[in-house]
Design a protein that fits this description.
881 residues, alpha/beta, eight-stranded mixed beta sheet, 33 helices, 28 strands, globular
Length: 881
């Protein structure tokens, strides 16, 4: 543990660095009486948060040609209370006024009506503004006074909210106990807010006023996203705030961030750039300024999947439109319809472009027409650059102010289509955005785009909390005879789910043995049975994706899982009707309820004559196609339903769709049964790494899980080295699930050691058979921990960690004897909370009884499944090798 650092010490260190390093003035507004107006702020009311005299001085200084009366009118507009508006709507409106100026109309010296904008911030010359760090400012709210720790003002406008905690207090308390209440009780403070900073020195996070806690992010790097971060040293020394002080709060960086790195998504969500986006986009922007000497090669922007690449594109385009004079056109190129639509919608929904300004051509001819015109942004597929063989592709535009952004530049970008694009736009500037190095370590991209302009890899993303960790488990059916020497051609053919007749014939002829084994009916039956066992017994019951080798197998797997799913429900109902245990009955009824609610679907691309092709395989595609094309009663399609955490569509069967550029945050489990390697493998597993605040049965998503039926992780070490780490990191960013069991054991031991140190004999009471009937012992333990607030909070951290790891280890942890130990921590936590919140201890006892029943009493169907798994699967655990 680091040495104790008080909130006051953190505040003083922060203020001094802002003052001495970054030119902030400092104003301590502390008064013993909250209602005392004589606090140095010169406010007329304690409800005020804008320091209007400072705003007025700045407005007069920055707008010398606008009459004072007009400026006063602009200030009145700024200070309107906007009580009828939602907080986000008011914040968005004021942000527009701060960024673009407040529109005013006045009569000029010639008596003519003149329209201007009153600038309150000078974004171009940071030195023309006045910067102020205000501490301990009492603000009157709806129910009394509140006093934020530090507020950062520019020209009298509060742009940054900073809440601090002692180093021994969990940082989340700053969000739950302070920021959340402040937004409700003194909302006027957040009307002008650009972003919020929360810190206890050990940990610091940054977020917007609409962000949930899970989307508050670290800011540890000042200028280089590849900078090695020693997180252990930062925690030990309590220096986590340094990254924000040096990377975000210097005058020029602060103004750049406020001007160019704030978005409003669908007018309901405020999105601000994360650390890697701010650094990466600015690096790409600096290269853009040198585009002539670089002959239009703007570089490769490699940020891993799940790190917000499409929003980085938007930040990049917005900054160029904003800061550079010229008539620029952006051309955003993808190679899939779903990616094209997703990026197009993101640009529209953030108002980066209007529908009138954007162009999304229907075909190649329309695309060529649009590129010859002066559109602001064109969204197109690389396939629309097709041209008759033997004919020279025509020049579409000779302009040198076209910026081509190639998203997820896969192999198609390096063949004839990309050559056509460059012939059509010979003087354009080219920037590649990708989630993986385009061609592995060979890095052949330099010839096309130039060098890497920004790198943010899989490992960094997990370290920063931008994505959740991934764990995989090999559950390989023994009937699979694997060919270790599969050719590159085999993988390439499988990446395209719409095989033409020649490709299909080649696949069936040259790789007939491998395909035959993958698609063996008895093998698929065993996998389907395992999915039915695994899916309802997980800890976090997030959405799942089953990835099969081809479209026919995807439909076949759907049929098998559906049949076995219904059999499982019938079997469970039979056990429920016979069991004498009320606890077991309740647990199994909950499982049946979950299984009955689950909807499943197949998502595969359409194909001409598909009904006949599927019929020839003894399958039917028609009901699946109808489901894929159908809109529900709310007008939502199947993709929207799956992404909606509340929608019962839980398990989807695919072979290639939704494996790239698809973002469903509650997707937590991937079942892989398809040969994959390289970037395709990395992009696929990244579907499960998204962060979400959505809890299911009070369980949080702490990680994603990959269940591997084909043993694709033969290729994982190479793929991770090439595509995930991007350097010399030795620790693999995707770990075997056995590591979770080790972490659980470690957390339990640490929890027992902590309790022993505090004279709480939790391990000792586990020796008794009636441990959870010894309420008196647990009452005594609870009183010991309640006597010291720091002990109680520390115990809660241990219990949270143990419970989260236990849930992540399901279903394999069931029956391994960990349930009693986990239950002991949960029961003691429940007794403590019963004292604090006056809860009914009986409810806690029932919950613990269910946990014990689940982990110790294996019901008949579980026993059967366990036997089947032992017989049919080789569960590869490195610890047992």
């Amino acid at each position: 543990m680091p040495n104790f650092i008080s909130e006051d010490q953190i505040e003083q260190a922060l203020v001094q660095k802002l003052q001495h390093r970054h030119g902030f003035d400092v104003l301590d507004c502390h008064t013993d009486n909250a209602e005392d107006l004589d606090d140095g702020s010169n406010r007329a009311s304690k409800r005020d948060v804008i320091l209007i005299d400072r705003v007025r001085d700045a407005a007069l200084r920055l707008n010398p040609d606008i009459p004072r009366e007009a400026i006063e009118g602009a200030l009145e507009k700024l200070c309107e209370r906007r009580q009828a508006m939602t907080l986000i709507a008011a914040n968005q409106e004021i942000y527009g006024l701060l960024r673009d100026g407040i529109p005013v109309t006045f009569d000029n010296a010639q008596g003519q009506s003149q329209q201007e904008r009153v600038r309150l911030l000078d974004f171009n010359v940071p030195g023309n503004n006045r910067y102020l760090a205000v501490t301990q400012l009492w603000i009157k709210g709806e129910r009394g006074f509140r006093r934020p720790d530090v507020l950062l003002y520019v020209n009298g406008i509060p742009l940054v909210f900073i809440e601090l905690k002692n180093s021994n207090v969990k940082l989340r308390n700053a969000y739950d106990d302070n920021l959340t209440y402040y937004k409700a009780e003194i909302p006027q403070l957040f009307l002008t807010n650009a972003f919020c900073v929360l810190s206890n020195a050990v940990e610091t996070r940054v977020g917007s006023i609409t962000a949930q806690w899970e989307h508050y992010f670290n800011w540890l790097r000042a200028d280089d996203e590849k900078q090695k971060i020693d997180r252990a040293a930062i925690r030990a020394q309590g220096t986590s705030l340094e990254g924000v002080i040096e990377g975000l709060l210097p005058q020029q960086k602060l103004l750049d961030y406020v001007e160019n790195f704030v978005l409003y998504y669908k007018d309901t969500q405020k999105i601000i750039a994360q650390n890697h986006q701010f650094i990466g986009v600015n690096r790409a922007y600096d290269v853009f300024l040198k585009r002539e000497e670089l002959a239009g090669k703007l570089g490769v922007f490699w940020h891993t999947q799940g790190s917000g690449k499409s929003f980085s594109m938007i930040f990049y385009a917005r900054k160029i439109f904003r800061k550079q004079t010229g008539n620029f056109t952006f051309v955003v190129v993808t190679d899939r319809d779903d990616l094209d639509g997703q990026i197009y919608r993101n640009f529209l929904n953030t108002r980066t472009v209007s529908e009138a300004e954007a162009a999304q051509p229907k075909n190649s001819e329309e695309m060529r027409k649009f590129l010859g015109q002066n559109k602001r942004i064109v969204f197109t597929l690389i396939q629309k650059f097709r041209w008759d063989k033997g004919r020279e592709y025509p020049e579409l535009s000779a302009r040198n102010d076209i910026i081509v952004i190639v998203d997820e530049a896969h192999r198609t970008q390096y063949k004839s289509l990309a050559e056509n694009m460059r012939k059509g736009l010979p003087r354009a500037n080219y920037l590649a955005f990708t989630g993986t190095p385009l061609l592995g370590r060979e890095r052949k991209t330099n010839a096309w785009f130039g060098g890497y302009v920004s790198e943010y890899n899989f490992q960094q993303s997990m370290d920063d909390g931008a994505t959740v960790p991934l764990f995989y488990q090999k559950r390989v059916p023994e009937v699979l005879i694997q060919n270790e020497g599969l050719s590159e051609e085999f993988y390439q053919i499988l990446e395209d789910e719409n095989l033409d007749e020649a490709q299909q014939a080649k696949l069936e002829k040259r790789f007939s043995t491998e395909i035959e084994v993958i698609k063996r009916d008895d093998r698929l039956e065993k996998i389907a049975r395992d999915i039915v066992y695994h899916f309802p017994r997980r800890g976090y019951l997030g959405k799942g994706l089953v990835v099969s080798v081809d479209k026919f197998t995807a439909v076949k797997m759907y049929d098998k899982v559906q049949r076995l799913w219904k059999e499982e429900i019938r079997s469970l109902k039979g056990i429920i009707s016979k069991t004498a245990s009320e606890i077991e009955k309740r647990r199994l009824e909950q499982r049946v309820e979950f299984m009955r609610a689950v909807e499943m679907a197949v998502v595969i691309s359409g194909d001409a004559g598909e009904e006949e092709k599927f019929a020839a395989q003894g399958l039917t595609i028609k009901p699946h196609r109808e489901r894929m094309d159908k809109l529900d009663e709310h007008g939502h399609d199947i993709e929207y339903n799956y992404k909606d955490p509340e929608h019962p569509l839980q398990l989807v069967f695919v072979c290639a769709m939704w494996l790239t550029g698809f973002d469903a945050p509650t997707l937590s489990t991937l079942y892989l049964d398809k040969p994959m390697q390289g970037h395709t493998l990395m992009q696929t597993i990244a579907r499960a790494n998204r962060v979400t605040s959505w809890k299911i049965n009070e369980v949080e998503k702490r990680n994603g899980e990959i269940v591997d039926y084909y043993n694709v992780f033969r290729n994982m070490k190479l793929a991770l080295k090439d595509y995930a780490q991007g350097g010399d990191e030795t620790e693999p960013p995707v770990k075997e699930k056995a590591e979770l069991f080790r972490l659980l054991d470690e957390a339990i031991e640490q929890g027992f050691a902590f309790c022993h140190e505090k004279a709480v004999a939790l391990r000792e009471v586990l020796g008794s058979d009636d441990v959870f009937k010894q309420v008196g012992r647990f009452e005594s333990f609870a009183n010991t921990l309640l006597a010291n607030d720091e002990w109680r909070r520390s115990f809660n951290v241990y219990e949270n960690t143990i419970t989260s790891l236990y849930e992540a280890c399901k279903p394999e942890v069931l029956g391994r004897g960990k349930g009693r130990e986990v239950a002991a921590f949960q029961y003691l936590r429940g007794v403590i909370e019963a004292h604090i919140e006056q809860k009914d201890i009986d409810a806690i006892s029932r919950k613990i009884a269910e946990l014990l029943d689940e982990s110790v009493v294996v019901d008949g169907v579980d026993a059967l499944k366990a036997q089947q798994n032992d017989a049919e699967y080789q569960i590869i655990d490195p610890a047992n090798k």
